[in-house]
Amino acid sequence: MSKKSVRDVEVAGKRVFVRVDFNVPVENGQITDDTRIRETLPTIKFLVEKGAKVILASHFGRPKGQVVEELRLTPVAAKLAELLGQSVIKADVSVGEIVKAQVDALQNGDVLLLENVRFNEGEEKNDPELSKAFAELADLFVNDAFGAAHRAHASTEGIAHFIPAVSGLLMEKELDVLGKALNNPERPFTAIVGGSKVKDKIAVIENLLNIADNVLIGGGLSYTFLKAQGHEIGKSLVDNEKLDLALSFIEKAKEKGVNFLIPVDIVVADKFGADANTQIVGVDGIPADWEGIDIGPKTRELYADVIAKSKLVVWNGPMGVFEIEPFSHGTRAVAQACATTEGYTVIGGGDSAAATEKFHLADQMNHMSTGGGASLEFMEGKALPGVVALNDK
Ligand SMILES: Nc1ncnc2c1ncn2[C@@H]1O[C@H](COP(=O)(O)OP(=O)(O)O)[C@@H](O)[C@H]1O
Ligand SMILES: O=C(OP(=O)(O)O)[C@H](O)COP(=O)(O)O
């Protein structure tokens, strides 16, 4: 059922509690990627222009209910003010009398950023008392934190039980794009799954077999499939508990007529580092004490060809250890193929997005999702609690 959005409600003069995902990467106090902040600007500007009193709330890192000085949102407030082109009032806490007074002082169009909501013990416990305290600050709840929509926390889910609750424009865009991609996909639809989180990704592959025409496997996931087929994989990453499941996916793909591709050649290394010795081998040639670290040139070509012919491509997880240059060619080839295909491309997952940025190809993709875990859970077909709690249209 579709959810009400911020466009469907009256916001002028209202106090609006907007949950955003400002969980951005920071090194030495500097924000190294401000994508998640930039992506919320349409919602914030929409509310400012309509004359709402905007109260922003976000988590930042995992402080586990304690105040952690390095996890204050102060650098985020400065970055937001710069990107928004207007001043942002920064609160030192996220609930209580001081915040109430700050909210009472807001004029229409003002923006207040609350402190990290995870400094409160009740946030991750979805404590109704905390949800109520957040709700008392506002007349309306807007959830724009797609990246945290898979979390049922006080500021993402609990608050929606106390005041009217609608989606923000980023949330709406993410759900629309991912929903269209998965519910009524343009065909051929190619799903590319790589990375190292074998357990997490296996569940996604199962759902993809029901909807995709081509499933391309790469990265650390590949070796569980190769081993399941009886190949020697040396010291490569593997999940020995998922071998039977992996084999059943290959069978299921055959039954369903899904073109399920596993690497046909591999870059192997004798150790994990830029100074490793490497070789390109076939799937039966992995030496016992070497590990698979990237897809090989034949696989790159094969995958690029499938991507070029696709109408829709959803990519989650790098093809190899792209952070180390000699092992980045597979991921680069897939990113390049996604950048040049005429099909619609959706990139989900922090590392695939980071790789795409690194290769300066991000602006050639159709949709870079702001959610890693959230987009995966969505692709698995799971309901996202932060969305379920919003008011239906
Ligand atoms: N063959 C491999 N062996 C070990 N690690 C790999 C391999 N291929 C890719 N990786 C690693 O997987 C990580 C990304 O995995 P993951 O978190 O599952 O992806 P994402 O964040 O895109 O969902 C990267 O750090 C990459 O170096
Ligand atoms: O960065 C996030 O996760 P992601 O890297 O899976 O997208 C989200 O902000 C959620 O954070 P959490 O996994 O600490 O709940």
UniProtKB/TrEMBL annotation:
Positions bound to ATP: 201, 292, 323, 349-352
Enzyme Commission number(s) from the entry: 2.7.2.3
Main location: cytoplasm
Residues engaged in binding substrate: 21-23, 36, 59-62, 118, 151
Keyword terms, alphabetized: ATP-binding, Cytoplasm, Glycolysis, Kinase, Nucleotide-binding, Transferase
Domain of life: Bacteria
Record keyword DNA repair present: no
Pathway terms, separated by semicolons: Carbohydrate degradation; glycolysis; pyruvate from D-glyceraldehyde 3-phosphate: step 2/5
Cited InterPro entries: Phosphoglycerate_kinase, Phosphoglycerate_kinase_CS, Phosphoglycerate_kinase_N, Phosphoglycerate_kinase_sf
PROSITE patterns for this protein: PGLYCERATE_KINASE
Location within or outside the cell: Cytoplasm
GO molecular function: kinase activity
Presence of the UniProt keyword Cytoplasm in the record: yes
Gene3D superfamilies: Phosphoglycerate kinase, N-terminal domain
Leading EC class: transferase
Catalysed reactions listed for this entry: (2R)-3-phosphoglycerate + ATP = (2R)-3-phospho-glyceroyl phosphate + ADP
Family named by the database record: Belongs to the phosphoglycerate kinase family.
Subunit architecture: Monomer.
Official protein name in the record: Phosphoglycerate kinase
